[in-house]
């Protein structure tokens, strides 16, 4: 395997710095090692997108990007990826409104991407496709005669087989997944759900090693929990820049305790439930009023999608109601911020916050939970409260694990975290940190690529289901 080709809906910007998200940095590091290619959407919508990708050099590797038309952006990105697949993968069948036209456009984009990519491929390439936007791409490449090792990693959860089957196109999509040589998931539960769906709806056979076989083709199913760049994040959190920022924050905290939440504004993140749990803490423990604040960052996301706009209004009215009812002249219970912040700003926020409140209703992994831990001061670490339904809960078992739907349980965990003795906090933090140091994002990509390489000796044809 000589060159790595990464494919994702979004590609890093040309000015990607180490302060960008851990995942982009780690994938970039693997491309720098192999002098590879990153292929995906340019982020631009044009009237008539051309068939040829735009090529840019980004240090040791190349970026190849395609524009989308307005119709493609709407059908592929908004309607099918984010209004159909997203709710299904997160178990929100109440939000599912499948639309055949959007599905056809979704497939057409994979077809167009595969054609554009195939002209750039070289012998010896290994291709690694990221996430749910481009599931059919591997099969399209096979049908174009490309015999390179093909890996796919799903960053979001894979739901139970019956939930996935609510999607009218579940068989075709499962067959797309099974065209890869390796399909990776965040947790063993997701991998099991996928195996069950593939066996039940496609009729493959389960081999002893957990692969699923269809005639001469088999797909390897693996578990690769994605990590952060722990060392880099920890170093940044201890840097003089972040120290200056934490001093500034402490000066405006007036000795109050902060709880922080950092999320994309998304209905899967459990933000309304989180606000209610915080309100319950304040109502039931009046002594905490004026002594504690929740700083909630909810970076706007997918704003053209109706459910995201609805969520935004709901959160605005909920935070407004809580602040209006409980706030005082010089204290707002919830500071609710609708914007994105850079990694140094977030590291400072994590470091001054007594509690990191990460309570998604469902989440593939959740890297904020990991970054919160990595940013802590080892002498006086804060406490992570983490949803059992985030992939990260499988690894960060020394967090206070909660059911995010259970308001009283989340409120009780907040009180427990505020009371937690220093030794207990240090012990929990040390154990989580040990795990994050070994299982970082570099280990994640190494393990995935090793497993992909191990599939290289198998027969490759387009006989997938
Ligand atoms: O975590 C899932 C994911 O869809 C990523 O693939 C993506 O980078 C992120 O959420 C942000 O979403 P979007 O690309 O729709 O802004």
TrEMBL record:
Pfam families: Glyco_transf_20. One of its GO terms (biological process) is trehalose biosynthetic process. It comes from the Bacteria. Coiled coil: none annotated. GO terms for molecular function: alpha,alpha-trehalose-phosphate synthase (UDP-forming) activity. InterPro entries: Glyco_trans_20 (IPR001830). Belongs to the glycosyltransferase 20 family. This is Trehalose-6-phosphate synthase.
